[in-house]
Amino acid sequence: MYDSLTELLEKIYLGEDATIEFKRALPHRNSLADEIAAFANARGGVILIGVNDDGEIIGVELQKLDSVEKTVVEICNDWIEPTVPIFTEKLRLDEKNLLKIEIPRSFFVHKTHNGYYTRQEKTKKEMSTQQLARLFQTRSQPRKTHFDTLPVPNTYRRTLRESLYQRFITEDATEDMIEDLLLKRTLLVQEGRDIRASVAGVLMCHDTPDDYLYNNFIQAVYYSGKVKDANYQIDAKDFRGPLDQQIIDAFKFVQKHNEVSARKEIGRIDQPQYSMRAVFEAIVNAVVHRDYSKTVSKIRLFMFDDRLELYSPGALANTVTVDNLRYSQATRNELLARLLSEIRLDDDMERQVKRKHFLERRGEGVGIILNESESLSGNIPVYEVFDEELRLTIFAAKPPK
After folding, report:
1. What are the backbone angles phi and psi of residue 283, rounded to the nearest 5°?
2. Which of 86, 82, 89 has its CA nearest to residue 36?
3. Who contacts 81 (Cβ-Cβ below 8 Å, separation ≥6)?
4. Using CA atoms, how far apart are residues 109 and 42, in angstroms rounded to an integer?
5. How far apart are CA 88 and CA 99, in angstroms?
6. Most buried among 13, 32, 161, 166, using CB within 10 Å?
7. Predicted pLDDT at 330
8. What is the SS3 assignment for the chain?
9. How far apart are CA 181 and CA 176, in angstroms?
10. Angle at 38 between CA 102 and CA 21, to 5 degrees
């Protein structure tokens, strides 16, 4: 919103309205939390820190700019429920430093310590009981609709990268046909008079999905030892590309640290710690079945000397439990599953994981994870649910004597 400096200067000149708020300096945390939540509960907007109420650009001292930005992020994470994903940008206008805080229209209803606020004209206003009821009714729709088909605020057709969406439309499509095809595939969706990228569209067809969908990446860490200890951290990576690339990158991370032992009988026999076929299935399942409406955490993959742990935000879907996981099949993100089932693996990956596409949709994934891992290590992998987060533990095979 107001992406060019010229457009932003024009808005400052015109003054505050329902979409923009000026702050001379960083206000009290409670007050700023109310302002941010109000924008998120309305149609989104921008807060400029370093601008007077009358539009005079005051600026923020350069040495304070980082501290101000950090405080704003902390307020969004700790003072508003649920967390509001924002975009901050440091700007220089009229030789003064500003902090731009862009708040997208939210999928949810947000509350601060002071209550529920919305934006009306150029001020925040506490919502009436009737307003709040209507807003909850409107924004509860993500629970009734597949979340991956919903429009993402502040996105457009150009948000989708051509090289990525071409994988899902016919090769001979003309320019005039592309938008209609993207709408039919639900990579784009209609929102009133606007066309937005869908959640699945951003996740599969944007270079860095977490630019729009907070925490939608895979964090991988390898520790030397059996506990999480920064002193024994050997390798760490964040994988932020489209989902299929995140899967490949996470797979290669495990492959890199998958120690292989050897024993000699008639010939050399290699024994890895983990079945890479099981690891692939586990990562794909984490990506396909995570709850993308939960922005407080990302998919996390931890490797230790004796095990691998994979965390995916969101409890199990529908009636699935950890006890019937092997035999049940419920897809939380149907559109994502369909898109991943259309993407071919390269020849090397196909040989390693014994499948042609990222997802085969035969309901065999959990069985492969359990059987391949137990066959290798002698221990059955363990699924557990903690605070609406699913954790899978795969135990490492011990080196042969």
Report:
1. -65, -45
2. 86
3. 110, 111, 112
4. 9
5. 7
6. 32
7. 66
8. CCCCHHHHHHHHHHCCECCEEEECCCCCHHHHHHHHHHHHHCCCEEEEECECCCCCECCCCHHHHHHHHHHHHHHHHHCEECCCCCEEEEEEECCEEEEEEEECCCCCCCEECCECEEEECCEEEECCHHHHHHHHHHHCHHHHCCHHHCECCCCCHHHCCHHHHHHHCCCCCCHHHHHHHHHHCCCEEEECCEEEEEHHHHHHHCCCHHHCCCCCCEEEEEECCCCCCHHHEEEEEEECCCHHHHHHHHHHHHHHHCCEEEEECCCEEEEECCCHHHHHHHHHHHHHHCCCCCCCCCEEEEECCCEEEEEEEECCCCCCCCCCCCCCCCCCCHHHHHHHCCCECCHHHHHHHCCCECCCCCCCHHHHHHHHHHHHHCCCCEEEECCCEEEEEEECCCCCC
9. 10
10. 55
For residue range 217-242, list pLDDT tens digits in order: 999 999 999 998 888 999 999 999 99
- The pLDDT value given to residue 172: 77
